């Protein structure tokens, strides 16, 4: 119908009417494109909001794991100190006999929490990172997850330190003591020292183990390295926790800013 009308205008040389029809068609197309852009913008805004909420949930879930890692490595630092003291004075081991037995095995253990990075990886691999319009938010996100990736390159060195400790400490506990640790599933965690300390063990055998510890100069000389490892682990976890807090703050501020359809271009 429209084409026929335009054809009639052309046959009648009514160029003004032709221009009016073309103008109306162009206006209609522009309005349709504008509506499509508006609809796409709304969909992208909703998707951005969903991603921000998921990122907040992911990092909020990391926080207690990181806090636990700090507590765990702090407890293991205490185990190292117990071994250092017992190496100098075997009677110290008798004050906490069960804890001492466990310390021989577990003083060099390390723990690195696995961060929840599903949403971040999805943003990176799908190209949806463009949906987050705040450069400041993207910057703190990359800093948070890249820091974790950078620290994991040191895991082989940590494993080497642990392995060396196991090698040097082998034989400090006698067979019965080692089997006791295994059969009792004696694995120290924060807040569980009192339970372990209440288990009855042969104090004479514990003192003999402490004497064997002190008679191993290589092991005694290695303990400061284990202590350094635990101190480093605590520091790294504290840095990881600080980054988690900063990232959460940035994400929550940005979530509040886009709640009123007024996203910020940067995070102060």
List the helices and strands and how they pair.
Elements: H1 2-11, H2 15-88, H3 91-95, H4 97-106, H5 118-126, H6 135-152, H7 155-169, H8 175-183, H9 193-197, H10 203-214, H11 217-259
Helix pairs in contact: 1-2, 2-4, 2-5, 2-10, 2-11, 4-10, 6-11, 7-11
Distance between the termini: 58 Å
Helical amount among residues, as a percent range? over 70%
What portion of the residues fall into strands of 2 or more residues? under 5%
The tally of strands reads: 0
Pairing-aware structural class of the strands and helices? mainly alpha
- The pLDDT mean sits at 84
> Outline, from the CA principal axes?
rod-shaped
Number of helices: 11
Give the oligomeric state of the chains in this entry, treating copies of one chain as homo and distinct chains as hetero.
single chain
Q: H/E element string?
A: HHHHHHHHHHH
Low-confidence stretches: 262-268
Radius of gyration: 33 Å
Provide the domain count: 1
How is this structure best described in words?
It is a single chain. The chain is mostly helical and 268 residues long. It is built from eleven helices and no strands. The protein has one domain (48-259). It is 78% helix and 0% strand. The chain starts with a helix and ends in a 9-residue tail after the last helix.
Short summary of the structure?
The chain is mostly helical and 268 residues long. It has helices at residues 2-11, 15-88, 91-95, 97-106, 118-126, 135-152, 155-169, 175-183, 193-197, 203-214, 217-259. Helix 2 (15-88) runs antiparallel to helix 11 (217-259).
């Amino acid at each position: 119908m429209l084409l026929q009308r335009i054809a009639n205008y052309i046959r009648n040389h009514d160029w003004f009417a032709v221009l009016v029809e073309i103008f109306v068609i162009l206006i209609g197309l522009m309005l349709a494109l504008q509506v499509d852009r508006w609809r796409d913008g709304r969909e992208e805004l909703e998707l951005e909001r969903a991603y921000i909420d998921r990122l907040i949930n992911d990092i909020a879930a990391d926080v207690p794991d990181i806090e636990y890692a700090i507590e765990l490595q702090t407890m293991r630092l205490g185990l190292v100190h117990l071994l250092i003291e017992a190496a100098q004075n075997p009677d110290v081991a008798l004050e906490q006999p069960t804890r001492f037995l466990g310390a021989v095995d577990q003083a060099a253990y390390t723990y690195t929490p696995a961060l929840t990075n599903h949403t971040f990886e999805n943003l990176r691999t799908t190209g949806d990172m463009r949906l987050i319009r705040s450069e400041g938010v993207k910057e703190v996100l990359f800093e948070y997850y890249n820091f974790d990736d950078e620290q994991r390159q040191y895991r082989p060195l940590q494993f080497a330190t642990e392995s060396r400790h196991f090698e040097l400490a082998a034989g400090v506990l006698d067979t019965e003591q080692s089997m006791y640790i295994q059969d009792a599933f004696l694995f120290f965690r924060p807040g569980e020292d009192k339970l372990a300390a209440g288990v009855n063990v042969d104090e004479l055998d514990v003192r003999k183990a402490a004497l064997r510890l002190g008679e191993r100069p290589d092991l005694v000389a290695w303990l400061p390295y284990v202590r350094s490892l635990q101190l480093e682990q605590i520091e790294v976890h504290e840095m990881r926790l600080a980054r988690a807090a900063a990232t959460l703050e940035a994400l929550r501020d940005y979530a509040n800013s886009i709640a009123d359809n007024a996203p910020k271009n940067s995070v102060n």
